[in-house]
Amino acid sequence: MTETTNDTAQRKLVPAFAGGGIIGALGGLVGLGGAEFRLPLLIGIFNFAALEAVILNKAMSLVVVASALPFRAATVPFSEIGSHWQVVVNLLAGSLAGAWFGAGWATRLKSETLYKVISALLVAIALVLILGHDAAVGQPLLSGGAQIAAGIVAGFVIGIVASLLGVAGGELLIPMLVLLFGADIKLAGSLSLAVSLPTMLVGFTRYSRDQSFSVLGCNKSFLLVMAAGSVVGTFIGGQLLGIVPSAVLLPALAVILLLSAIKVWRHK
């Protein structure tokens, strides 16, 4: 049975902070918020049902993304993000609709089916992590109307994935920004956050209509403590970014995602 009482959450505060910190550090090492790794933890270790885990993950992702934007402002000023507002709007035109659709779809799926969908998406993200994260900066693949159309379609798909997993979607947005729009990798990281925040808010609003949304009220302390651990871990991971070589890091993180996908697939 899913454990969602305040008493249970109180007993899990220390492991919640530690788990959030470790997951945040893993994500920070590769320039992400870590939500991809946090979701299997919520399901497999803390025993939340699929939809409850997605909603909790979404709430924590909002906290991490909201804190990441000012953290990055020293490297990528808000003025630079603003100067690329057309790119943000282009992707949001698809991602907002995708987020609403994805969240609505998730609330209608049976838990067993949602576990399978989550597993498949984790495998897909593991592949993107290996193949797309170090995409070379260069000329945009497309221009003009073709670029706009591709941006809307890509945004729609990313919005669906972000809602189904409760993630920010940076693991998909960053390669897309680099390849489709030719953005510098650092700028792409900040632009992805600018797209992710409103996209997640739309998905979060849609989830608020479902009865499973009550998991947030039943686990306030757990949510805040794990989110705090995630923010701290993300900061630490970012500081360690230059120490661990990508040739070792990315395959290792992909293996973690693949193992997590297997565990979630088998979850009852």
Please characterize this protein's 3D structure.
It is globular, with a radius of gyration of 17 Å. It has one domain. The longest helix is centred in the middle third of the chain and has 24 residues. Helices cover 78% and strands 0% of the residues. The protein has 13 helices and no strands. With 268 residues, it is mostly helical. The N terminus is likely disordered.
Quick take:
By secondary structure, this protein is mainly α. It is built from 13 helices and no strands. 50% of the residues are buried.
Task: Please outline the helices and strands.
Layout: H1 6-11, H2 13-30, H3 35-44, H4 50-72, H5 78-82, H6 85-108, H7 111-131, H8 144-165, H9 170-181, H10 185-207, H11 215-218, H12 220-239, H13 246-266
Helix pairs in contact: 2-3, 2-12, 3-4, 3-13, 4-10, 4-12, 6-8, 6-10, 7-13, 8-9, 9-10
